[in-house]
Specification:
This protein is of the alpha+beta class. 45% of the residues lie in helices and 27% in strands. The protein has helices spanning 4-22, 26-31, 93-104, 107-117, 135-161, and strands at 34-42, 47-50, 55-56, 61-66, 71-76, 83-91, 121-124, 128-131. The termini are far apart.
Length: 165
């Protein structure tokens, strides 16, 4: 015959086992494996396609993207230069907090699930804000950048030539 004390301990052990199986990955549960990703452009109405197969016909637009992998977003608009932007998948503070929750509840299984699902990551930049440039604006911006680089190089050369005490 099982005593009441042993029966109560057995019920508690089963409840604890059920809880640890049902919450194996804190970040996966609290944050999910995907997030909204927004693209905005000036002027609006640009087409967006991503290297992982998402697309929209006119900005602003929002996608539900997997957090796990980085990708490239291509933004184009008639009369403007096509732009490509690298979107990173970086570890986020909230994801790390969910991962740390595994120490209390999910254990090694939860850590493995969170680590492989991408739930601990965020896509950046988000939103992606793109200023579309005409070919003439692009050329002017490139000339300005080259002039800034020449000025910085001249300043660095002058500083290097100045005797140090």
């Amino acid at each position: 015959m099982i005593s009441k004390r042993h029966a109560r301990l057995a019920v508690q052990a089963l409840a604890l086992a059920g809880l640890s199986v049902s919450l194996p990955a804190c970040a996966t549960i609290t944050r999910g494996t995907s997030q909204t990703f927004t693209v905005e452009s000036t002027p609006p109405g640009a087409r967006v396609s991503t290297s992982n197969g998402f697309q929209c016909d006119a900005t602003p637009c929002t996608f539900r993207m997997p957090r796990k992998d980085p990708f490239r977003a291509t933004v184009s608009l008639d009369g403007y230069m096509t732009q490509e932007h690298e979107i990173a998948s970086n570890y986020a503070g909230a994801g790390a907090a969910g991962f740390a929750g595994n120490v209390l509840v999910g254990g090694v299984i939860g850590m493995a699930v969170d680590g492989s699902s991408g739930a601990m990551k965020d896509l950046t930049p988000n939103p992606l804000v793109v200023e579309m440039l005409t070919p003439a604006q692009h050329e002017a911006a490139a000339r300005e950048e080259a002039a800034r680089a020449r000025t910085a190089a001249a300043a660095a050369a002058a500083a290097a030539a100045t005797p140090q005490n």
